[in-house]
Structures are given as C-alpha cells and as structure tokens.
Task: structure prediction
Amino acid sequence: MNAVPRALDTPTTTPLVVHESRDFRSYHAFLRAARNFMEGPLVGAMHDAYERRIHDQGGAAPADWRAAERVLDDTLEFQFYCWAYRNLQRFKYHRPTLGIFATLEAQRAALEAQLDATARETPPECLRLDPQLKLPEYFEFVPFHQHTGGVAKDALDGLAYEIGRRTTVPSHGDPNGIYRILFEALPQGRYARVLDWGTGHGAALVTWQRLHPQSECHGVDLSAPCLKVANQRARENGMRLLLSQQDLEHLDYPDAHFDLIFFNFMLHELPRSHTQALLAEACRVLKPGGLFAGHEFHLRPGDPFQNVLQRSHAYTNNETYSIPWYDTPIEALGRAAGFSSVTIEPFARLNRSVQRPGRAPINANHWNLYQFRK
Ligand SMILES: C[S@@+](CC[C@H](N)C(=O)[O-])C[C@H]1O[C@@H](n2cnc3c(N)ncnc32)[C@H](O)[C@@H]1O
Result:
C-alpha cells in the first residue's frame, strides 16, 4: 500500500470547546501549582527529613527501597506527599462543582452532539469504531489515574482525559511538550507510515503530524470516546489521521506495514502477562528495520529514596501494573518478540531534579527512552 498525502489545508470542523468557569480554571491552576510544589520543594523537604532520620538512627544509608520506605514512612512530609498525590487527583475529577466530571456533565448534550456530528461527517477510513470490540479485562476494570470507570465507558471520557492531562503530564505548561521531546530524541527520518500505539485523545499524533506532514498517521486505542476526541482534534487541525478502535494485541494491519510505532505512557499500563504478546504484535506490523520507540517512567537504579517515591505512585494514582512493570525484563521480552535490538537509556531531558545549593541534587523521577529495532 502506498502512502497518500495526509495533511488537509483547512479545518474541516468547528472547534469543540468545553466551557470552563473562572473558578474551574483557578482551581485547576491551583492543582498544577500544587503538583509543582510537590515535585520540587516538598521533595526537598522530604529528603531533608529522610537524611535527619538516617542521622538520628545511626547514619547507615538504606540499602534498598524497603529500608528507605521504613525511614520515610512516618515522616510528616512523606505522608503529606502521598495524601496530596492521591486526593488532589481524586478532587480533580470528582469535586462537585470544580471537578472535571461535573463540568462536562453540565454540557453533556452539546458535547456529545458535536463529537457525534464530527464522527458522522468523517470519512469511514479515518475513524473506524468497533462497538463489538471486547475490552481486555486488565483494562476494563481498572480506573487508571483515578479516572473513575476508566477512559472507555462514558461518551465524555475522552474529553475528561484530555482536560485531566493538563494537571498530570510532567510538562509544567505545555502538555504536548513531552511528545516533542520524545520525537526529537528519535533518529530523524522521513517515516512514511507511523502508528501511535495507544493514542488516547490523539494529542501525540496531532503533534507528530504537524512536525511531519509527509507521514501517514495511524492511531489505535481501545477507547471509542478517546478516539472521537482524537478525530475531533484532527479535523479541527485540518489533518487526516487514520484512527481505529482495536486491541494492540490483535491488530488488523498487514505484516510489515509501519516505518515507526511510537508510544507515550504505555508500558506501565500493560500487565506483565500480556506484554510479550503486545510486543510481538507491534513487531509483526513493523517493516524490517522499523522502529518501535517511546518513553516510560521507571525506578532509578541505586537510588532507594527515588524508588520509594516512584513506587508510591502505584497506590496514590491507581497505577495497577506499574509495580510489576518495574520488574518486567523488557529487553528479553523485546528480543523474544522478534526485535533484533533493544536499547534502553535514561531519558535525561525528561528527568527533573531538585537542586540544593552546595549539595547533591535530588532525583525524584526517572524516565527511560526505549528503542526497539526490528
Ligand atoms: C496512559 S494512556 C496514554 C495515552 C496517550 N498515549 C497519551 O500520550 O496521552 C494509555 C492509553 O492506552 C490505551 N490502551 C491500553 N491498553 C490498550 C490495548 N491493549 N489496545 C489499545 N489501546 C490500549 C488506553 O485506552 C489509553 O488511551
């Protein structure tokens, strides 16, 4: 199949706007500021408390995350960090007036009507929805990120996810910045046909298409509500994205179809029991020499303090599969799935540290860049 021109010149639909009250906007600005505080000064204060306790207990540095967790567990700073992480995320969706769900609910009829109208006027090959698709159990029953009900059940779940990411993504301003950082890190090339592996609301694919108008852009996701938002944004941007509702484990594309498959925030959301099959399917649809690449957060080697914080997100943010993900032998699974090379390296541009004058910086997060070559 030959790639055809994709980018349209002019928007093909009216922009969909969710009306946000001033109170809503200030509340969500507060949530963003709170996250910045938690990831910066609070991490510094937590580390100070950690060092004080180690000193008080005789000075031996914790050998692993279990020992570090015992030190951190009853510090006020760590308890506050965990409370704030869990509950601010919960408030973000659920507060009766200022939460995302209430704001969308008040506009439900108009928002659903516009998403549906745009879907109806979309050429069928650009938005393939499959009402019969059986959602995998590992996905269907997990409210990732505390998005109650998950992202695939309610018609407005895609919009809730799109708004929610503004106060989740570690970008401090532009939630699409993380996609550009990934794309800049990949080997530069023409990439005639690309797939966004778990495209969600489609923002990464829109970002890619803007940077690479020559690429034929495909996006797959389990969630119809998310794909409808991705379609809406594509058409507002005058783009011809090819979106389809499929399970990444059973794609309907022919073998050797894509030059590049990229992913954002995906590996930690997949259970270990399915990872091998998912990788094998990605490898099947890649051309020989093609690239499967993305970023993911992980434990920072040899840093028990960071490991405790990173592990705590599994509980505070309902990241059900992230703890097993940290132990997943992804390199071996990638090779077993058919990739000829697997490169995993720290993704320095995503890693932020808390600076302390005259002392070593504290690394609260850790991201890797994964590149699998067929
Ligand atoms: C954490 S979100 C990431 C979304 C998007 N990549 C982004 O950058 O925001 C994970 C996405 O993967 C989708 N997903 C999870 N498992 C999937 C599967 N087996 N097949 C297709 N999509 C899947 C979810 O519906 C969700 O939209």
Summary: The pocket of S-adenosylmethionine is lined by residues 136, 139, 151-152, 198-200, 204, 220-223, 226, 247-249, 264-266, 269 (CB under 6 Å). The first helix runs from residue 22 to 39. The radius of gyration is 21 Å. Residues 87-373 form a domain with the Rossmann fold fold (CATH 3.40.50.150).
